[in-house]
Amino acid sequence: MSKTHSYYMGIAIAVRKNANCLGRKVGAVLVKENRIVATGYNGTPEGVPNCVDGGCVRCRKRDHYRSSAGYDVCICVHAEQNAVITAARFGISVEGATAYTTMRPCFDCTKTLLQAKIRGIVYLHNWTHPDPDLADQYELLQARFPEKVQQFEMPDPDFEWANAIPAPPPSPLPGRKPSRTGIRTGLHTALPPEPESPESPESPESLKPAQARGRPKRRQSRTSRPQPRKTGPARKQP
Ligand SMILES: [Zn+2]
Ligand SMILES: [Zn+2]
What we know:
The structure is a single chain. The model is unreliable at 167-195 and 197-238 (pLDDT under 50). The protein has helices at residues 2-16, 57-60, 79-89, 107-115, 132-142, 159-163, 180-185, 204-212, and strands spanning 27-32, 35-41, 98-103, 120-125, 149-151. The protein contains eight helices and five strands; from the N terminus they run αββααβαβαβααα. The longest helix has 15 residues, at 2-16. It has a five-stranded mixed sheet with strand order 2-1-3-4-5. Residues 21-23, 51, 56, 59, 76, 238 line the site of one zinc ion (ZN).
């Protein structure tokens, strides 16, 4: 069973490489009768400028749209949704399929998968909703899948890239320590990830790879600009 899981999760990880969202990158595959019937990754709708090119306002303005909030105005389509939508587009039934996704599905994707009669969900990285009341409701909803929602852990070679979220705004909330790594690089923080934005608890790990890579410290160079690189707007999560 775990061989099956690692096979399909490995493919979901490969699909994720195409994700173009400023936030967390997610890949998903729908598997039915041991066949992949659809795949999806997160990003803006076809024909709309990519999120990484500033296409999504909500993903860009992370200081305004908090983690796990404002999805209704986010134009990025989530990986799981894209997989279901792609199946619809080509007339493929997904009823009874299992969804493999690199991030535990958010509220919206959970609803979508449930209504599409997906039987079960296997996810790689966990996510919990920050609001306790909503988190309870989220768990109730996820408990509706006949074959359950389960985590399958395996090595993720692109963990940092996929789960990195942008530096927090300058004035952090009281009690929330800004990540030194995030501030220094302007690229990564220790804030918990959000699914395509979901929040994931394993953030400390996102610190290590950045440091291990020996990314140059901003303050070393007097000539370097203090903030993000010129690869477009600061990276934000959806
Ligand atoms: Zn986005
Ligand atoms: Zn989602």
